[in-house]
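Dear colleague,

Thank you for sharing your sequence with our group. We've completed the structure prediction you requested, and as agreed, I am returning the results in plain text so they can be pasted directly into your records. Please verify that the sequence below matches your submission; if there's any discrepancy, let me know and we will rerun it promptly.
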Amino acid sequence: MLRIAILLTAFWALASCAVPTTKVEDEMLDLGDFALGHNIVVAPNIQKGPLSRDASAERWIASVKSAIDARLGRYEGERLVHLGVNVGGYVLAQPGVPLLMSPKSVLGITVTAWDDRAGKKFNEEPKEIFVLESISGGTLVGTGYTLSAEDQMANLSHNVARVIEEWLHQNRVCMTDTATAEQLAACWKDNKDERLRQARKENLGE
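Please find the predicted structure tokens below.
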């Protein structure tokens, strides 16, 4: 617990810039005994991809934190889980880019889940998550032509929070007191996302 407290205290100032949460209407998933504890979002080395609008680390932190609070704050289990999220890179599509290039907004993060009870990480290797913007009838030409940067960020943050929720759902049995040794050994695997590395090469300029 002491190690977690030290880390959370160190990161707290970076996550203090918050925006109002938006209610999530999606059906809740089975997350075992999960309850959201500290929701720490940082972006110490955030990278902006080519042909992207600007967005500060502070704005990304606020947007992602708000989306996670709104989605995962709905759960009222008895197993307190702290989340540490690192926003690694992004592209916010902008107008003026030729339509043939089909500019799309993307966001890449890593996330670690901490077990408050045990005072240690659930997943030693951070989970990599890469999301694209949601496409609707109004965004078929890319959100750079239809949405503000803030709306694009909210779109991507919403999608990241949803994927985190699905990841926790996949590992729900390991956030209960009834998990067997075999089940525990199978949890928190498949943390690499090859799309994230490919996006860094192609979209984020690495």
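Summary note from our side: DSSP finds five helices and six strands in the chain.

Kind regards,
the structure core
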